[in-house]
Amino acid sequence: MSDRAGTVLCMGNHSGAPGSPGTHLVWDWNGTLLDDAAAIVSATNAAFAEIGLGPITLERYRELYRIPIPRFYESVLGRPPTAAEWEITDVVFHRHYSERRVGCGLTDGAERLLKEWRLAGHSQSLLSMYGHDELVPVVRGYGIESHFIRVEGRTGPSGGSKAPHMRRHLEALAETVSPERTVVIGDAVDDAVAAAHVGARAVLFTGGSHSRASLEAAGVPVVDTLEHAVEEAIRLVA
């Protein structure tokens, strides 16, 4: 496997013969496969404290959350964050999140679903806006890396949309994966936006960053478990 150019390619082709019409899943990481919503809110509150904001609850976080992330800060501040505010909160958030992430487990059913999907001969990959250099060892540490044909985290500045990353991700898999047979499973409206950007489908999971109402506004299936997410994915490309 290789870590070059911001990617990790796992050995083997789980999708069958090249050009096979099987469904490909692109999984999100934070708030989807990784059950880290509490850690994210805790790190967010630590970041808010740096610029004089009080803490918010998980429920409130889900109501206000927006991508790009500066829009989320704007919804809390009532104005766009200054460049200095964004810089300091971004640094503090990532420092506190790294400390709290170690106590997080995988979402219920995640490991089983990943294994079953691979053993059924289907392909899946992981695309996250978590920094690539941090993501790769974390995924490896949970013992699930071998289930994916590609593991890819964000390269470049934080805070942006997943859409351009999704395009590059699927371009790298173009020999065996077609966007029309691809379903993105994530916890944010931005996952649905990224899927639409490349001509793929999306299913959104309520266990992460958004409220159900926010997710439903994206106009794609919304589910409460990862098992139902996979069921919806199969239905979408049947």
From TrEMBL:
PANTHER family: PHOSPHOGLYCOLATE PHOSPHATASE (PTHR43434). It comes from the Bacteria. GO terms for biological process: DNA repair. Gene3D superfamilies: HAD superfamily/HAD-like (3.40.50.1000), Putative phosphatase, domain 2 (1.10.150.240). This is Phosphatase. It comes from Streptomyces inusitatus. Signal peptide: none annotated. GO terms for cellular component: cytosol. GO terms for molecular function: phosphoglycolate phosphatase activity. Pfam families: Hydrolase.
